[in-house]
Automatic annotation (TrEMBL):
<feature type="region of interest" description="Disordered">
    <location>
        <begin position="492"/>
        <end position="519"/>
    </location>
</feature>
<feature type="domain" description="Cellulase Ig-like">
    <location>
        <begin position="6"/>
        <end position="86"/>
    </location>
</feature>
<keyword id="KW-0624">Polysaccharide degradation</keyword>
<feature type="active site">
    <location>
        <position position="543"/>
    </location>
</feature>
<feature type="active site">
    <location>
        <position position="534"/>
    </location>
</feature>
<keyword id="KW-0732">Signal</keyword>
<keyword id="KW-0326">Glycosidase</keyword>
<keyword id="KW-1015">Disulfide bond</keyword>
<keyword id="KW-0136">Cellulose degradation</keyword>
<keyword id="KW-0119">Carbohydrate metabolism</keyword>
<comment type="similarity">
    <text>Belongs to the glycosyl hydrolase family 6.</text>
</comment>
<protein>
    <recommendedName>
        <fullName>Multifunctional fusion protein</fullName>
        <ecNumber>3.2.1.4</ecNumber>
        <ecNumber>3.2.1.-</ecNumber>
    </recommendedName>
</protein>
<feature type="domain" description="Glycoside hydrolase family 9">
    <location>
        <begin position="98"/>
        <end position="555"/>
    </location>
</feature>
<feature type="active site">
    <location>
        <position position="486"/>
    </location>
</feature>
<comment type="similarity">
    <text>Belongs to the glycosyl hydrolase 9 (cellulase E) family.</text>
</comment>
<keyword id="KW-0378">Hydrolase</keyword>
Length: 565
C-alpha cells in the first residue's frame, strides 16, 4: 500500500537554534501562498505569516512551499507549525538543542568498540555486551589474525578499533576517515575554546584521565590502525593491510562475542597505507598537546607509511570478495595528495607541500574513496603554514565550494547541500549531506561568511526530518526517527532480547541504487530522496557506519557550539 508519510509540514524534528535559520517545507498542490502559524505547546499561536511557493523539489518531485519563521525570538519545547489544517511534528527552539545529540553521536563509537566489553555503567543495561573478537570461544578473535591464505606468511595482533558498521569487519580506509573527522572535530573545537570536547564530556572508561574524551575515542581506533601496518623485516614493511574481516558474512543477528567465523587480514593497499600516513600526521599534531609519546608513535607510523607508499604506489584493493565490504579504490592520486597535505600541515616540510596535487571540488566533496578535497581541509586547520597569497587562494577555494553548496540548498525544496549531478543518491547519501555541511562550516571558520554557517546549520534540518519522507535519520531524535538500522547486535526488531540502535545513530539514508533485496521489494520506482526504508534488512539504505556517524558528530558539535555564541 501507499507509504504513510505523516504530516506534509516538514520540520527539523529536533528543533531550531534560537540564533539560527528557521525554515520548514510544506508539501502541497497549492501554488499560491498559504497562511502558517507557529503554535506553542499550549497550541497558542506565537507567530504567523504566509508561505513562499517554491515549485517542484528536484530530488523528490514534491510540489512544495517554504515557511520562514526566522524572526521568531522565543524559546521552549513542543512547538508545532500549522499550515491550514495540517500540523507538523513537534520541535523545540533553544540554545542547547544539540548538546545531547552531540554527545550521543560520539557515544556511537564506544558502543561499537571491538575487543572490549561494552559496560552498562556507560551505555545502560540494554546496550551492554561482552567483548567480541578477543579469542574467547567461539570467537577466533583478532589477537592473532593470519593473512588470507597464500597472501603472506605471518599473523598480526589487530585487536581493538571500532566495528565498521552493522557488520564486524574493520576496514582501514573508512576507519581512518572517521578517526580523522574526530581529530578535526577536536581541533576545531579547541581552536574555538569550545568546552564541549573537555575530559569528562563522554560516558567512556577513559573519562577522567585528563585527556579530552573525543581524543580518547579517536585513539581507540588509531591504535588499531597502527596495528594494521606491516612489520619491519617483511617485504611490504610500512604498508598497511586494507582490512580484516570474517571469511563469510555472518547472519543477523550475531552478537560480536558469538561470531565464530575465521577472520583474515587482507593484503596491504596503497590507499590504506596513505590513510595511515594522513591520519598519523594529524594524530601527531593533535596529540602533541596531550600525549607526546603517542604523538611520536603516530608520526613514525605516518613517515613509514608515506615512504612505503612511494615504493608501492599502485597496489589497489580489489572489488568483490566474500564476508566483508570491498572498499575498493583504483585511483590513489587523491590519497597521496591528502597524506601530503596532512604531513605538510604537521611538519611544514616543503617536500610535502610540493606533493599536494588536489583541491576541494563541490561535485566530489569527500568520502572514504574520494579524499582529494581533504587536502584543503587539512590546510584550512593551519592556514598560518601558508604564505598570505596562498592563504587567500585557500579561502577562495573553500568559498567557491561553499557557494556552490549554498546554491544547491537554494535549488531544492528541502534544504540540502547534496545535489548529485547524475540525479542519483549514493549509498550513504546522508554522509554526503553531513560532509558537505562540514565543508561549509569550515569555510565559515576560515572566512567569517555568515551565510556558510547558516547553510551548514540548515542542512541539519534535512537529516532530522525536513525531507521528502518526513524521516529523522537519527535514532532517538524526532517523532519519526530511524530505529531499525542494519546491525548485528542492535537487532531488536529480529530478537526482542537485543537492543535497538543507541540514540544518536545515523542511517545511511536514501540510495537510488536499491542495492539490497528489502529495498528492491519496497522501493521500486522511488524518487531518489525517497529511496529509504527503516527496515533492518535494508543494508543499502539503512545501515550505520563509523564514517557516517563521525560526520554527524562533527556537525552536531559545530551546531552545539554555534548555539552558544
Ligand atoms: O559506505 C560504503 C559505500 O560507499 C559503498 O558504496 C558500499 C558498497 O561497496 O559499501 C559501503 O560500506 C559498507 C561496507 O562495504 C561493509 N560494511 C558496511 C558498510 C556500510 O554500509
Amino acid at each position: 500500500g501507499a507509504r504513510d508519510l505523516g504530516s506534509p509540514v516538514r520540520v527539523n524534528q529536533l528543533g531550531y537554534l534560537s540564533d539560527g535559520p528557521k525554515r520548514a517545507t510544506v508539501v502541497t498542490a497549492a501554488t499560491s501562498p498559504l497562511s502558517w502559524s507557529l503554535l506553542d505547546s499550549a497550541d497558542q499561536p506565537v507567530a504567523t505569516g504566509t508561505t513562499t511557493p517554491y515549485g517542484a523539489d528536484a530530488m523528490s518531485g514534491d510540489n512544495v512551499q517554504l515557511v520562514d519563521f526566522g524572526t521568531f525570538r522565543g524559546s521552549g519545547q513542543g512547538y508545532r507549525l500549522a499550515v491550514g489544517t495540517e500540523l507538523s511534528e513537534p520541535f523545540d527552539i533553544g540554545d542547547n538543542l544539540y548538546q545531547p545529540l552531540r554527545r550521543d553521536a560520539l557515544a556511537y563509537f564506544y558502543n561499537n568498540r571491538s575487543g572490549t566489553p561494552i559496560e552498562a555503567a556507560y551505555v545502560g543495561d540494554a546496550h551492554a555486551r561482552p567483548a567480541g573478537h578477543l579469542g574467547v570461544a567461539p570467537n577466533r578473535g583478532d589477537t592473532s589474525v593470519p593473512c588470507f591464505p597464500g597472501t603472506c606468511g605471518y599473523s598480526l595482533d589487530v585487536r581493538g578499533g571500532w566495528y565498521d558498521a552493522g557488520d564486524h569487519g574493520k576496514y582501514v580506509v573508512n576507519g581512518a576517515l572517521a578517526a580523522w573527522q574526530l581529530l578535526d572535530l577536536y581541533e576545531r573545537s579547541a581552536d574555538n575554546r569550545d568546552r564541549g570536547v573537555a575530559d569528562g564530556t563522554l560516558r567512556i572508561p577513559e573519562a577522567g584521565n585528563g585527556d579530552p574524551d573525543v581524543l580518547d575515542e579517536a585513539k581507540w581506533e588509531i591504535d588499531f590502525l597502527l596495528r594494521m601496518q606491516v612489520p619491519a623485516g617483511q617485504p611490504l614493511a610500512g604498508m598497511v593491510h586494507h582490512k580484516i574481516h570474517d571469511e563469510k558474512w555472518t547472519g543477523l543477528p550475531t552478537r560480536p562475542a558469538a561470531d565464530a567465523q575465521p577472520r583474515y587480514l587482507y593484503p596491504p593497499s596503497t590507499a590504506a597505507t596513505l590513510n595511515v600516513a594522513a591520519v598519523g600526521a594529524r594524530c601527531a599534531r593533535v596529540f602533541a598537546r596531550w600525549d607526546l609519546k603517542f604523538a611520536a608513535k603516530c608520526l613514525i607510523a605516518a613517515d613509514k607509511a608515506w615512504k612505503a607508499a612511494q615504493q608501492h604506489p599502485a597496489i589497489y584493493a580489489p572489488d568483490g570478495g566474500e564476508g566483508g565490504g570491498a572498499y575498493d579504490d583504483t585511483k590513489v592520486t587523491d590519497e597521496f595528495s591528502w597524506a601530503a597535505a596532512e604531513n605538510f600541515a604537521t611538519t611544514g616540510l616543503p617536500s610535502y607541500k610540493r606533493a599536494i596535487t588536489t583541491e576541494l571540488k563541490a561535485a566530489d566533496g569527500f568520502s572514504w574513496q574520494e579524499t582529494g578535497g581533504l587536502a584543503d581541509l587539512a590546510l584550512a586547520r593551519v592556514p598560518w603554514r601558508l604564505s598570505p597569497p596562498d592563504q587567500a587562494k585557500l579561502r577562495k577555494r573553500l568559498s567557491n565550494v561553499a557557494d556552490q553548496y549554498v546554491a544547491d540548498i537554494g535549488a531544492q525544496g528541502y534544504a540540502n547541500p547534496y545535489l548529485p549531478a547524475d540525479g542519483k543518491y549514493v549509498w550513504g547519501s546522508n554522509s554526503a549531506v553531513a560532509n558537505n555541511s562540514m565543508i561549509m562550516a569550515t569555510a565559515y571558520d576560515l572566512t567569517g561568511t555568515r551565510k556558510y554557517r547558516d547553510a551548514a546549520l540548515e542542512s541539519l534540518d534535512y537529516l532530522l526530518g525536513r525531507n521528502a519522507i518526513n524521516q529523522s535519520y537519527v535514532t532517538g531524535y524526532g517523532e519519526r526517527a530511524s530505529h531499525n538500522q542494519h546491525h548485528r547486535f542492535w537487532a531488536h526488531s529480529l530478537d526482542p532480547s537485543l537492543p535497538s540502535p543507541a540514540p544518536g545513530s545515523m542511517a545511511g539514508g536514501p540510495n537510488s541504487g536499491l542495492q539490497d533485496p528489502v529495498a528492491q521489494r519496497n522501493l521500486q520506482g522511488c524518487s531518489p530522496a525517497a529511496c529509504y526504508v527503516d527496515d533492518i534488512g535494508s543494508y543499502s539504505t539503512n545501515e550505520v557506519a563509523v564514517n557516517w556517524n563521525s560526520a554527524l558528530a562533527w556537525m552536531t558539535a559545530f551546531a552545539d557550539a554555534e548555539g552558544h555564541t
